[in-house]
Amino acid sequence: MEGAPPEVVEGRRHEEDVEVEGDVAALVERLEREWVEKRWCGPVHTARALAGFGVEARGAVSLLRRFWLWTPHSHERVGYLEALAAIEPAGLGGIYAECLWDCEEDARLLGVERAPDGVEVRGRLRYLVEDELEGEKVRAAARERLAALTGQS
Fold first, then answer.
1. Percent of the chain with pLDDT over 70
2. What is the pTM of this model?
3. How far apart are the C-alpha atoms of 101 and 117, rounded to whole Å?
């Protein structure tokens, strides 16, 4: 099934500081290969390289969404989301709202900044402001966004 997650392959190691180069077609092909070969460490570097091409890399959108949904590395989700935003920003509102509950601070910050206004989003922003266990960066950003949405300062 195309959207199903590949099985996790144990014991693979990849370098963190990887420079990924190539044209759009080569990078999309590489991302597809990384999905098929169940490479979980490293595709975020390919995603970031694709982001540099903007809308020209729209052929990678479905792959990026798959990696966003299925990666076992929560810290890489932000990279996939930033790539999606650079390539095809329309339709990401639901993902940004979901980010408000993410375990990664950087993802929550993206959600605070970009989630579309709504009752649930405002409620979550209020929760983040009041949550004493939340990081100060997220609390401050949520406070600022909530003030902007409600017209209060």
1. 86
2. 0.81
3. 15
